[in-house]
Amino acid sequence: MRRVHLLCVLAAFSLTASLNVALAQEIIDTPTHRLEEVAEGIYFATGNGALYTMSNALIIERDEDVVVVDSHITPAAGRALLDSIRVVTSKPVTTLINSHYHYDHANGVPAFGPDIEIIGHEVTYEKLTADPANEHTYLSSLQRFDNTVARLEQELENASSTQERQELQEQLEFWQAHVSAQDEIVFTPPTTTLRDTLTLYRGGREIQLHYFGRAHTGGDLAIYLPEEKIVFTGDMMLGGVSYMGDGYVTEWADTLQALKQLDFDLVLPGHGPGFSDRARIDNVQAYYTDLTEEVRRLKGLGYSAEEAATRADLRQHADTLGITQLGANLEAVQRMYDIMDGLIE
User: Fold this and answer.
1) Do 193 and 312 share a domain, yes or no?
2) Which long-range CB contacts under 8 A does 86-91 form with residues at least 24 apart?
3) Most buried one in 23, 134, 144, 208, CB count within 10 A?
4) What pairing do the DSSP bridges indicate for beta strands 197-202 and 205-210?
5) Which pTM was predicted?
6) What's the domain range around 176?
7) For the purposes of burial, counting CB atoms within 10 Å of the CB of 162, is it exposed (0-12), middle (13-18) or buried (19 or more)?
8) CATH at 123
9) 239-259 pLDDT, tens per residue?
10) Do residues 215 and 256 lie in contact, with contact meaning Cβ atoms separated by under 8 Å?
């Protein structure tokens, strides 16, 4: 009888565990977002294409309030995120964490109102109180979106069928709406800053904020939930190679090595889907290390940044990162040259 009872208890425990896993993987679709419940009360928010969000966000429900990580690219996208949060909870959003200062993660902040506590790294504060409207990454995005609208207008003018015109008109209206939404942007810095670490203990959650070193920017934060073993990495760690135009490639692998000291089972990046395969971090580390060595080698041979970007051979990463062609990103290589020459600190 004792053996039968034990088997029943184990079966019940297994069923409960299975139900908890299923619950943690629930998908909630809102008019603008896909909310993946990655743990109880924790949602990985991605846009569904109804409007342009560009980046991911994280929603952390506590006993009496909600913490949000990143706010998308415009106040309109930020409002859509808030509307989606209300689908899963009526608790107020009291705290917003910036993973870093880039426009596609921090420009939705005004949607959260004047009373929101905004937490970010000191570098994020410096960038958002200096001259953010003239940051080259932000300016290049404005030009890119304007070019997209101009291209679609030209294609619509030349369209030869009703179906083609209808499809192009829908695309054009989508991007025109985004360009118009940019008019609302008010660059808003953190109200609370950290240099190394900060831990929030409140409402049944422990939320750790870690700065491990320079990587995608000079102030990337990892937002870590130790009980749930989840880390939100912003653009410091994506599923593959990140944008390097504001990065510190020579330091990036060391920063990721520090990240790996955390005990996590799930990585939620600032773009793209979450993943559990820690080997992806190893692969990206190896790429940044090899890119650093290759650029230093070519620079030492007297090649210009343009020539080095053309000649850099990283094809050893074909199997892990899909790099099959000769060359590296010119913007990244030029920045590496500038850092090596002392033009950028």
Assistant:
1) no
2) 87/28, 87/30, 87/35, 88/28, 88/35, 88/37, 88/43, 88/59, 88/61, 89/41, 89/61, 91/61, 91/62, 91/64, 91/65, 91/66
3) 208
4) antiparallel
5) 0.92
6) 133-184
7) exposed
8) 3.60.15.10
9) 999 999 999 999 999 999 999
10) yes
